[in-house]
Amino acid sequence: MNMYIQPDYEVVRDESKCIACRVCERQCANLVHSFDPDTGKMKADSTKCVNCHRCVCLCPTHALKIVKSDDTYKINANWDNQTINEVYKQANSGGVLLSSMGNPKPYPVYWDKMLVNASQVTNPPIDPLREPMETQIYLGKRSAKIERDKKGRLKNTLSPQLKLQVPIMFSAMSYGSISYNAHESLARAAEELGTFYNTGEGGLHKDFYRYGKNTIVQVASGRFGVFKDYLQSAAAIEIKMGQGAKPGIGGHLPGAKISADVSETRMIPQGVDAISPAPHHDIYSIEDLRQLVDSLKEVTEYKKPVIVKIAAVHNAAAIASGIARSGADIIAIDGYRGGTGAAPTRIRDNVGIPIELALAQVDQRLRDEGIRDEVSLVVGGSIRSSADVVKAIAMGADACYIGTAALLALGCHLCRTCHEGKCNWGIATQRPDLVKRLNPDIGYKRLVNLVTAWNHEIQEMMGGMGINSVEALRGNRLMLRGIGLTDAELRILGIRYAGESM
Questions:
Q1: What number is the average pLDDT over the span 434-459?
Q2: Which CATH architecture best describes the domain 133-143+156-497?
């Protein structure tokens, strides 16, 4: 016996406005809307609605809206509707619950509990419209001996660096989890902005090799699509050890999203689930990691920096300390609110720690050990605005990854059903009829607009602090103040309470 599961949302149609044009029916990949020839009217099956808002946005008469269902089980503070429905789903199927995007639970967002200090008289602010502001940064090892040749000229002994015009990159999203058009939008935007996008663990489509100078390729535990040309094509290589949305487990791409093109790019069978293992089966120690770092550098003739990506967990600082000694050039840390194309719901919602706390601990540990300049730090996992970027850099990051914000710029409505492969906005899907809904000529411009706007705001905020470069902002926690935080949280974050003097 399958239990009826109440829908989370209801489709409300204003019959006085509806002209039965059937646009909603054509636009909905979830088959919510249908036309009743007997009555000549449209009807909706709310049980199929994922609240993607495609029908609402495209209804020519504004006859539709999606509302939160007020149908409820008997009120119980311990057993809410979602919890009961999830028990019913698992009792019906016997399967693991899957979810997409980031953790939606109402846990604290520490960015929102930090305020940025401002300059006044003795340290006057800087006007970014009239004075130069430097948002260009380099990622890679900074420690280098000062050496000169026989003529007294400085020798360049720096390890390979990534040059970013803005301290923002597009985070790892694999081809398969997102569409061809979404990847093209990200690649073109990265090229125009002078930054980088990350392929994720799905390999690199042959059409996108031309964007190699702005591409970071990923080597994950499944080694999907990894071969010599792939590694040599990019500006940097990222070893994915963990992911914020699902620490401790591997990747999962449902077989329905393994199209012919995805199959060729990933070098795996078409239509079969792509499940990468939890660990790299050749990495069980820092020494093993060093061996892979060395191997990747050797195959790329030591011309490309190597990034190691980890999930934000309680011992991230100790892990980062080891990575800094493994030969890696950059450490990427992904917080528990990071997005994903598919993850077990229980993992996504209950495992990991906030990126703010992990970043503070990692930066401080590396400074205490005198090795902070051995690596650069990049953080992601719910970077939602330019203010979050500024606060992250002041906390010790060199740059930030953005993923969900980039998808929102492309039209994502956070319906959190990416794993089903029926994205009505053409982003998290491989269905040709849906993919074409995202026009990369428009998509990449929207991404450029977003990052350009953020960059202007970053300059404004730095100017207000009396700081004229990202480098001067990096790790400057004196410019942050906490509000609504406990003593323990302030201690971990390494910042003072708002109103507390120096």
A1: 98
A2: Alpha-Beta Barrel (3.20)
